[in-house]
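pinned: reference chain
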Amino acid sequence: MRKAFLVALPVLAASVAQADFTAADIQYLYGPDLELPKGADPIQLMTFEVANGWKYGDNFFFTDVGNGGVYDKKKPINDYGEFHSRLSLGKITGNDLSVGPLGDVLVAGEVDYPAGFSPTFCYGIGTDLKIPGAAFFSLNFFIRDEVATKGISFQVNPAWLFPFTTGPVKWSFGGWIDIMSGEGDNQKAWFQMQPTLFVDLGNFWGAPGKLETGIEYEYFHNFLGIKDLDVNHPQYVLKWNL
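pinned: its structure tokens
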């Protein structure tokens, strides 16, 4: 089982909802873990991510490199990545599968690959919700196959992005939540969330969307299924859209 990582899962402006679209960015994240003693090394991560929409679905990939292994100083896990892919049943069949606020129905898959540990495979279904003001709001339901523990659990994963403006300032409120069922006594149920609030710096000099900065806050209850081990920290983020 993964022992220590801090995921900087991104929200790339509506790319998951568009066909024939590719976007990439690089992020620098810095911040303390509020659950660790004062004076502990701050978390520093570099994240590279790519989102792609095509005729029949969407893909997303990211990788983290940094000192995210704060729970094991002797052997920190410095590298972590995920690959997500979804296929649209509506686009493949040519039928409108939306019902009320529920958009398309998609076959969804995910692979988590922490350095030095066995991967986790997730498979299930997803949809895109029609939420006023949202660039996107996706909702996925997964069965999680933990290779290391040979255990099966369940995961619900909403993700969102809400752009808005206040006067000349362009903002975005995004984030995601993971709710895991756990594997009984061996792995407790856990809850992880990472909301973000970014301001578009590039908009101030005629390059909107190029450079963003803001705050990401992570809360992780029962870290990776370990009872009463929590992660609780804000991070400063500088994001360069390529």
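why pinned: Residues 1-17, 69-77 have pLDDT under 50 and may be disordered. Residues 89-93 form the longest helix (5 residues).
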